[in-house]
Amino acid sequence: MPPRQLLLNPGPVTLSPGVRAALAAGDACHREPAFASLTREVLTGLASVYDGAADYDAVLLACSGTGAVEAMLASLAPADSRTLVLSNGVYGERMAAMLAAHGRPHEQLAGDWLAPLDLGALETRLRADPGITHVATVHHETTTGRLNDLAAVGELCRRLGRRLLLDAVSSFGAEEIRFDDWALSGLAATANKCLHAPPGASFVLAERAALEASAPAAGSVYLDLRRYHGPQQESGYSPFTPAVNTVAALATALAELRAGGGWRGRRETYRSRIRRVAEMLGRLGVEPLLAPDAGSCVLTSWRLPRGWSYRRLHDALAADDIVIYAGQGPLGPEVFRIACMGEIAAAELDRLEAALTALLAPAGGAA
Asked: By the 8 A CB rule, do 221 and 75 touch?
């Protein structure tokens, strides 16, 4: 039997046998009490992944992680004050585009994609303008693999009395998140990255008081978190058809996360894999895009070896059923990315190492 495809892209991920079985368990109606009960179980599970979220409720959506980020911004970014978007990659810049699309007052403090967030500029701007009440940023910027310093951003928001709106799409479930210390108003994330569930379900964890407060229209019917919040919390029913099978699989994925030591256990698993990848690529002379201490446990970016295009490297590995990921924007011609999420066995990393060595070792010839 040929080896299964090894997914090293940043989601969707390879599913565990248990999650796959839950996904294929059978058809269900989303208006039946059994599914409503399952929804409430998932909502509780999402709000319990991290300590300190007692005052936050989860809202479950049928969409990608991008949809959850847009729902968060459309519903929680104020209409009578400004949101400052702090960005250093594609996904921070996308947050600014979302705010513009929904007509929410905002400005962007855009930084170099290869640099950390500019905390000095953020503090200067916040001190100068009390009309900025919220900050929006990305935790793990997968454009480069940088794990942004949210402890510093969050402490600054808390000290200066601002609220933080966080894209945690590719960090939730594997990197540290501190709700109170970071002055979080809300965060958006998805099932099909660090939680190891299939695509189709995403969510926002937001302050209960913010979800219950009256607010200007979200500018969208489908992305209005308040339409979902009350019905889901009270009865488990959603106003629109949820991703039924994905929700069932997510319940199993959350149980597996808890059994594996929670987000801390998953972080250690990812760190071990990332170290293995870094060691094998280092031996082959491949250079990282960022310094090792700047990256996340989830994904790393690497400079393409001399003489190799991304397409050529991708296709050579795909012939061995190994999937890597391209760079984005101006980094596209320069880098490739490897993520370590999902159900990945040590033997599969052995297979990756053998394939890379055959291609990139001096005897492999990469002219």
From this structure: no
